[in-house]
Amino acid sequence: MTSGKTKVVMDGNITPWEDATIHVASTGAKYGANVFEGICCYYGDRQYLFRLREHLERLHESMDLMRLPQQYSDEEFEYSIWQVLKANSIEGDAHIRLSIIVRGEGLYDVSGPLVLVCTATPRSAGPLAGGTVNIGISSWRRIDDAAMPPRIKAGANYHNGRFALMDAKRHGYDEALLLNSRGLVSESTNSCFMMVRRGALVTPPASAGILDSITRDTFLKIAGEELGLPVEVREIDRAETAIAAEAFLCNSFQEVRPIRSIDGIKLKQTAPGPITNRLWSAYEDIARGRKSKYREWLAYSRDSAQ
Question: What is the CATH number that goes with domain 7-122?
């Protein structure tokens, strides 16, 4: 979505795509000094931003950990989102990216000035079966809290996933699964890993070097509260992944990608498996406003309520 008609919001100003720039000498450009959030927008009886409050809370936490000044309010963030959706005439599903970029010049310790950038990419719902992947265990290790804290959603952290993804594709896989410094399962190059083992939904803990994912948290809650499944947040050995009944990757951008095989070993259930399908069906009902119990997870424009 990079045509001349596309609009970006920068510090509250609607800006043509080609003019949404920062200087090549900025700390954001030279050293990847930025934090961001990916937020899902779904259409039900109106447009909903899914778990906006939690995403903005994590954005503020990332800014604190990166020592960036908290100069933007939640109201400014939310206004930017609705502004960019309206400017691009997006009335259905979309993926939102909110970024705080250091546009000041200097070394990598520069913390300002900042610019708030908001983009929106329209998308349509598709079948889970269309997003299945074969994954391989990467020889690259996941970054950890002692080096580059993975709980910060910062652009620079994704270079770790870049190395792993390029290597995985070179070996014929669609995606990679990284282990942490202790040799235990962490996450993929940009998604959390979840598997079904002996009837339970299992995923690594935050201490395994994962992003503290909101999408992951959503599926854990759905599994326990809606489907009545046992939920286990625990360490996972490499070998256990290949003997799972089913597994999937999840994030806000690609949502759910069911896994067909791990290291060339096919999982027991054809992807997407029955539990993955049930989880996704419940997720869609919640995200599109069809479950009143979870209405607090949904934010909508005041204009759409009139």
Answer: 3.30.470.10
